[in-house]
């Protein structure tokens, strides 16, 4: 081993005022460890048995604490080959199973070992990060009771090691990320997963944050996305398709009497049968709360830059995520003036100037359209500015083209047009109500981009086109509105063609969040279709009620309770209002053909349980 | 302080074609991935670099048309070797060990068996310190800048095992005042080299996440780099043949 013990006299020479007994124990521990290299393992065996007592009585605990403290002073004598059994025994110890005195002694040993030699840094960091997961055998009340005690000690130890080994945070990152339970999502409990992510956030916001911030956030976003993709479209449909009408009937009959019960019941049906959804919901809420804490600590903008980069790299490139994108939506809602505008600009920039794949640009504009439509916190002037730039881009595109209608060749143009008309479906009325914006809207060269050889109104999703034209006609937005024959836009194969295999023509990523707990965070900052006042006066009396009720919302006076009650009303109206049904952009035939012929019933689903490829029934 | 070298090297970097719109940025990213890691080719840790692109990038004639960029780079290397004298700041003193941080990133540990018997462990006003028995003012405590002797370095974690056994090791402040007869450094050309190191240290580039790009050094260059850098010729210019 290469360690030569000093003689007794030398060992005590530097004792100073230190406790003689403690020093003697350290000396004995060194002697025991070094004696292994000389072939004398009797003391070492005794030490090993004391580290793994069969029963943990008071005497055993005292012995364990004493041994660990002595070993902490003798780490220089530990050899990873000679003492592998000891290291293995210690690595199997979980802080969660011990009382504070043992925890402290164990962590003192780990800290000493990690800082004694470079070769033990990773071992100790691994052992500390293992504590991010409570043992499966530990009952829930004990986990909750011990959580703070264990985790605060672990993070304190990580900081101690980082103070003495400055590069240890960089080594910690892959260890934490590799600890991600990616292959056992089915078996791991939601609580364990939440505690793991909680620790990632704790690292991010702690003193090691400067080094670990980006990878920790990236790890969390990856985890959310992995859970997201594990909840397939089919999963949601299988669970709901059989009970669509039953639930809609339930919705119609009961929701009027009880605003709060029905949504929870509906969500339970989804969440209960799919633990991925429950896990994702819990992690989303944890992320939202962390973002809130960042805002309180006045570092949201710093975090948002990281989040934005991650969004571009992972969420934007992912195949139609259903829920993970709401993390950035929520971050934007916390700081609309900075984060909210920055996000819109980033999406706009990606659509206009990206040299990347056109599919990515189409996704970016789909996110932009959905975001501008749904974000209640965005100023209508910000939306108008973005719309103007989108229209400008489309005008320039039209001028450069001399072709006729061609969904595949001009898919970028069509996606831009669809984004414009989709946003206007949601925002036209509020723009018409502002004299300044009304003038601006009338001067917007919409007609030149919508009525030309490329015929975007024939290619974009018919339900959106129909609603847009209806509102545009009512607002007298076009001088030549009579040229459009509305009835021709109910069905279109062309939209399917420009949307491609990913059906980006019907990708509206910020449709209502279907996760119950997450939705409660998103809802106050979210515009549901039922809250939108169209420019036309609907003949349906129920719709008039909606219009009247939401008139106050434009002034920002609507509280959450009213919104919830109106949302419930909306379900009813969705069933009875034919105009609203037409606005559902989940084409019955196209979804039917995509998800197989097993689903013979109409594909419309209540907004709360429908996958968010489309807006809730309008 | 020993262990710091400035070396001029010729590098060849292969860049993905998607990075061709900003070659300089792509090279910066690639070189940044070398920072604060032990590099076997250079036999040291790259602390800073500056470079200029030697020629207009060529496109490699292969299935994957990577850009082939030749660089002349100046690297500041940290290459501690056994028996070198390094300087660092004490961050923790315990009865069993002294913990030191060198250049702000590399940790060094001196265990009690590597502390000469002249030093006695004490606690004073709740603070741990080692005090010389023969010179009471020669004190090592948290915050003290000390000179230590390298025993070994873990290339993976950049942790150094060090010693305070030689007489010319200990608190720099005390040593500089009292051990003037001990020649610690090669005085020739020292000042000029320090200036160059400082200039490079100032231009130290923040590490960025590693990108999926390649950096290759031709086999001849590797051999030459190793041979030349191994000699630790501080400040000597090593122009490597391609």
From TrEMBL, chain A:
Entry keywords, A to Z: Initiation factor, Protein biosynthesis
Entry-linked InterPro entries: RNA_pol_I_trans_ini_fac_RRN3
GO terms under biological process: transcription initiation at RNA polymerase I promoter
Domain of life: Eukaryota
Residue span of region Disordered: 596-618
Residues making up the signal peptide according to the UniProt record: none
GO molecular function terms attached to this record: RNA polymerase I core binding; RNA polymerase I general transcription initiation factor activity; translation initiation factor activity
UniProt GO cellular component terms: nucleus
Family under the similarity heading: Belongs to the RRN3 family.
Protein name: RNA polymerase I-specific transcription initiation factor RRN3
Originating organism: Prunus yedoensis var. nudiflora
Taxonomic lineage: Eukaryota, Viridiplantae, Streptophyta, Embryophyta, Tracheophyta
Automatic annotation (TrEMBL), chain B:
Protein's job: DNA-dependent RNA polymerase which catalyzes the transcription of DNA into RNA using the four ribonucleoside triphosphates as substrates.
PANTHER family in alphabetical order: DNA-DIRECTED RNA POLYMERASE I SUBUNIT RPA43, DNA-DIRECTED RNA POLYMERASE II, III
Keyword Nucleus in record: yes
Listed name of the protein: DNA-directed RNA polymerase subunit
Cellular component GO terms, alphabetical: RNA polymerase I complex
Keywords assigned by UniProt, alphabetized: DNA-directed RNA polymerase, Nucleus, Transcription
BP GO terms, sorted: DNA-templated transcription initiation; transcription elongation by RNA polymerase I
InterPro entries documented for this protein: RNA_pol_Rpb7-like_N_sf, Rpb7-like
Location(s), subcellular: Nucleus
